[in-house]
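Amidohydrolase-related domain-containing protein
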Amino acid sequence: FFVQPMSYVLFVVFLATLLGLASGAGLEAFLSDKGDEGRSLERFTKGSASNGQCWDRYGHDGFQTVVDVHNHFQPFEGPNVPFAEYMEWMTEHGILFSTMMGLGQKIQKSYADLPDCCYYLHCPTFNYTVVPTTANDILNFGWYNNSYRTNKTLQESIVLIPSATFPNLQVPDNNTATLDQLITDYPNTIRWVGEVNIYKHALAANGFWNFPKVTEASFANDTALAAFLRRVAAAGWPMTIHCDLGCDNYAAVPGWDGRCVVGAAEAAQAHADAEWWRTFLGPYYGGFFNSTDHPQQNFRKIQHLKVWDAVLTQFPTLKVVWAHMGLSKELLTLHPTVHTYIMQTLFDRHPNLHVDLSWDIIAQLYLMNYANVSIQELQAAAHEDLHEDSETLFNSTMIEGLRSELAKVWEKQQAHVETFGSAAKIDGPTHAMAIYYVLIDKYDTRFLTGTDFVSSMGPPGKWPGLSQFKSPPTGCMKDAANHARQLTDTSSINMFLDDEAFRNIVLGGNFFRLTGLDAVYQPPAVCRPPAAGNSTVTVITIISTAGAVQIATPRAVLVGLVLCVCFARLL
């Protein structure tokens, strides 16, 4: 949660929590109602009788998303989950709308006699490079045309949006020609592009940095990359881009000894561009640059921000979906107040920027792993990202109060998440969740839901990877329970959203607008909560004067969730 520096600041936060509105007790199935009055395309079809039936997010309809904008139907290597089987998993778990991504890269062995590997972190060496290819897109487009378009029953159960995931943004010379050929070979099929990579630190050990690095010069007007991005923008397709903001570790890359650092040339360029960084980062500039405008070590966490902003600036009509909020396992310690400030600035600058909340690690490592984090770790005195110019922007008392209210909502859904999700990793909202909650609520037309599920069935005996990194081998076997777990984990933050944000993000309002499906579909209204007596309101008044904070919590009752933050400068 961040505010602008003031000598005196008056916060009045009206927070009606969702206490008593949902209960995990008695859940016998992943979805408690899948009939005509449950999850169906008709429920979302404009003009249908069931579209007028409100969505009971607190009861049988639930908080799980109906839209998966980040869904990989093909693995990096090895066998996939057969199409019909995967459709059963998705429909049984309540997915009604989904992109149909391949994986735009496949693992390429240097020598034929090397063990087969289905996931790059099972074989993180340059002998297993991850190389962009059309192979998975061709498989997906075949499925779409031969197994989906010919199956009326399936078309009445789920809407699929095929995506071209092959483009190589590092070596883009053939992207446009290849796209045109795929359009010729598979007419009226492609309606999305990506996930494609600008920066993906997780692939470092598999040769990602052996390709040219994307820079601002890469998409100058006369480059092949610029021509390709203009082509996608002209088509009106959304484009999912994986662009890590930066990195702070490589702990999740087995055996990789590469340190996460900013190169000398990049550091010199950041110094030369110091005024840009000062303008963008505002009060947070001093946390990343020293008094002589040279980047500090923690600058590595945001090192790719200027290139990312330049892409969005250069192609303002491109409908961009930023995968995973720019986070990854290789970026774990960026202060959430800084990150949300960066996202707010990007949203304000770029109206066509959207963010997907896909990937279960977002919940497991950032937002819903309360037992493993402490608010003390975010205090200005303890965190390298906060400087004396920004330390007053993090109000731990206010964040603690908001997190406590979110925790009460969590208690009502905890049983369901523990049954179908990662009980050992998802244990309640973090203080970071409270900070991101405020951003998501404010920019609720910019966020999308997704799982980042990878549909794979590589048995360990045939796809062992390298024993020094994966022993015993696990392969890449997925099943329905695994899909339910990943869907539950990624959906777990949905329970905290207010009703309007829930309609836009969870029930597809944003997705429909982004894809043009809003001509046919619209999210149903969200039901009013049950008896108002089950809901409480907490009024937190914080008056900051020279660091003094007071909190008052009177007894009150409200229906729904209202968040009002009022700022008043006392002159």
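thats it. DSSP finds 16 helices and 17 strands in the chain. The longest helix spans residues 396-420. bye
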